[in-house]
Design a protein that fits this description.
338 residues; alpha/beta; QueA-like; Thrombin, subunit H; 2 domains
Length: 338
Amino acid sequence: MQTSDFEYQLPPELIAQHPVQPRDASRLLVLHRGLGLEHRYFRDLPEYLRPGDCLVLNDTRVLRARLFGRRRDTGGRVEFLLLRPLSDGRWETLVRPGRRARPGVEIDFSAGDCRLTATVDARTATGGRVVTFTSDLNLDQAIDHLGVVPLPPYITAALEDDERYQTVYAGPKGSVAAPTAGLHFTPALLEQIRNLGVQVAKVTLHVGLGTFRPVGVEDLKQHSMHAEYYQLNAETADLINSARRVVAVGTTVARTLETTADAGGQIRPGCGWTDLFIYPGYQFRAVDVLLTNFHLPRSSLLMLVCAFADREEVLAAYRDAVGQRYRFYSFGDAMLII
């Protein structure tokens, strides 16, 4: 199967630039595999859940991972996108402009009473940089104070409230992008779901930039995923293993569960790094129902969705969503696959 098999046409005006208000007012396309489509609203989700189900959420929080500074030697403007912490104040980052960000270059991000500087240590194999930060404050506090929440490049409008790019249940910081399927939930909707007898469990997968990048090779077997850190505790594993159906909220949850599932579909608690790439031909072991947003053409996210349901069926659903003027991508509408 080729990357070009996951292409579709999307009018630019259907790329959502703002989140809807309230969160659960977004639309919901329900795909019954092999049976057809329904057009609903996200607030109708409880109608598709049953007592004994387990709804699994990704509780990661998006970092204020975009930093703007100046080179100490030339005064030139520099932008960092933090990808993942390493150790002792060291981070893997993307740097723009990166051409002259050679080892030894120092960048100053300080503002007011908050001092933050970085020194470029090395270039990574993927074109990023390893840098070492120094600050008068706790490094996490300095980054949180000086950084801004990064939005995907297809969102060009300003975000008035950073919390709208966080889920209402966001916990540990670590992502450079939101697990967007979860953006539609409100506390009231989650409470309604619990009252149905549905268990709500949380895992953590810190979303990396590689998840959202288009696949750059034509032969899918040649693609390598950027590894992302996950954590799943024993209590969550027990909830999932005792469920009648496992409902994964987003592709990040699906990848976490499939990473931690044994051959019989039982979830094993633990933490680590996953580079699992799911595309058609993959046999799911843990996930029974998938709730997701609409994804970019040629992306690993769309490929995962096409592995969970038939590729032609998914792409036909996307064409229908375009015809029905659904809103696409991070701030767009949702899709439930049963």
